[in-house]
């Protein structure tokens, strides 16, 4: 008789051979999982490094009750890697960890128990602390949440749809059946790939889950440390990163809008984005070249403004199936 699986830890990775050993070590040291049937699956999203070889070497010497599995997803993009993980996962709950996310030793047990306690939670996110390789500028906290840093207090928090705030995919747990019944087979946003920083694929997925009436929660007891390397604090990384977030926004803004209301909402967002741009120029205009945080914010506002036009011209706004 095949044993049912309670929980799947899914690790989508692209060229993560240097980062995965530390994460796997954290997972091998999980506590209080004796009564949980769980598995680890690594989804290699078309890596060009030694990721496949690394995992196969781990598998040869794997002597734990929970299996370590490897899958290859050739279609580039985090959305495709997560979809592959959902397809292959055997757990009723799937906890996603990026290859630079390092959970505390009670993460699996805490994540599993939260799902049992809150059956209406279709998805729930972790408390994510930054592990900076170098200290960011003092004003960086204004944009830090965009780097999957989520510190929203020490009590569970229900994300209200009207607040338009949702957790990142790092440290996120979803119910497999909820994903399968809620998320389109072909999303519009597929995640950053070389040459294209269009992002927010995780936000699109969660909005569809909310649209189906499932709750989305923040669970502070699921703690993860996100290692943020120095290159992610450089202008060459951050400006394209915020451009990608902004260019994606028309998709995420419109998911829960009734078709008859879309023209009105479209113009309301256009006017509000223009207001933000003008206010930002008035407030920070003389610092946009010297203040990296202000420059990132300006890029976000500008890209949000042009998002519907960019997506339409580039053929993204096609009907999902």
Overall body shape: globular
Order of helices and strands: EHEHEHEEHEEEHHEHHH
Please name the CATH architecture of the largest domain.
Answer: Alpha-Beta Complex
The main sheet comes to:
9 strands, mixed
Helix content: 25-40%
CATH topology of the largest domain: Spore Coat Polysaccharide Biosynthesis Protein SpsA, Chain A
Mean pLDDT: 94
What is the CATH C-level name of the largest domain? Answer: Alpha Beta
CATH homologous superfamily descriptor of the largest domain:
Spore Coat Polysaccharide Biosynthesis Protein SpsA, Chain A
How many structural domains in the coordinates?
2
Low-confidence stretches: none
Distance between the termini: 36 Å
Strand content: 15-25%
Number of strands: 9
Structural class: alpha/beta
Rg from alpha-carbon coordinates: 20 Å
Number of helices: 9
Description of the structure:
- The chain is α/β, with parallel strands linked by helices and 321 residues long.
- It folds into 2 domains: 5-233, Spore Coat Polysaccharide Biosynthesis Protein SpsA, Chain A; 259-313.
- Helix content is 39%, strand content 19%.
- It has 9 helices and 9 strands.
- It has helices at 20-28, 51-60, 78-88, 107-117, 176-182, 201-211, 235-254, 262-284, 292-313, and strands spanning 5-13, 38-44, 68-72, 91-96, 101-103, 121-132, 157-158, 172-175, 215-228.
- Strands 1, 2, 3, 4, 5, 6, 7, 8 and 9 form a 9-stranded mixed sheet that branches.
- α1 links the parallel β1 and β2 (38-44).
- α7 packs across α9 (292-313) and α8 (262-284) runs antiparallel to α9.
- The protein is globular, with a radius of gyration of 20 Å.
- The model has no long low-confidence stretch (mean pLDDT 94).
């Amino acid at each position: 008789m095949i044993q049912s699986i309670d929980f799947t830890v899914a690790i989508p990775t692209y060229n993560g051979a240097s980062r995965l050993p530390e994460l796997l070590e954290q997972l091998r040291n999980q506590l209080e999982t004796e009564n949980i049937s769980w598995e680890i699956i690594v989804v290699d999203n078309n890596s060009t490094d030694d990721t496949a070889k690394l995992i196969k070497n781990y598998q040869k010497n794997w002597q734990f009750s929970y299996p370590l599995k490897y899958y290859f997803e050739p279609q580039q993009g985090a959305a495709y890697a997560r979809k592959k993980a959902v397809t292959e996962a055997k757990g009723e709950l799937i906890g996603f960890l990026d290859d630079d996310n390092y959970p505390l030793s009670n993460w699996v047990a805490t994540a599993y128990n939260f799902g049992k306690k809150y059956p209406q939670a279709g998805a729930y996110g972790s408390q994510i602390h930054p592990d900076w390789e170098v200290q960011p500028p003092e004003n960086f906290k204004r944009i830090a949440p965009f780097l999957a840093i989520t510190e929203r207090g020490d009590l569970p928090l229900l994300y209200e749809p009207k607040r338009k705030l949702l957790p990142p995919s790092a440290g996120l747990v979803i119910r497999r059946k909820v994903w399968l019944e809620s998320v389109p087979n072909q999303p519009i946003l597929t995640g950053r790939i070389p040459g294209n920083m269009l992002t927010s694929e995780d936000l699109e997925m969660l909005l569809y889950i909310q649209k189906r009436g499932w709750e989305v929660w923040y669970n502070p007891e699921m703690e993860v440390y996100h290692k943020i390397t120095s290159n992610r604090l450089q202008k060459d990384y951050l400006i394209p990163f915020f451009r990608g977030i902004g260019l994606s926004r028309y998709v995420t803004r419109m998911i829960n809008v009734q078709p008859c209301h879309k023209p009105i909402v479209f113009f309301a967002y256009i006017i509000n984005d223009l207001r933000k741009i003008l206010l930002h120029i008035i407030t920070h205009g003389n610092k946009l070249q010297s203040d990296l945080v202000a420059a990132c914010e300006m890029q976000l506002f500008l890209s949000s403004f042009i998002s519907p036009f960019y997506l339409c011209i580039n053929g993204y706004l096609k009907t999902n199936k």
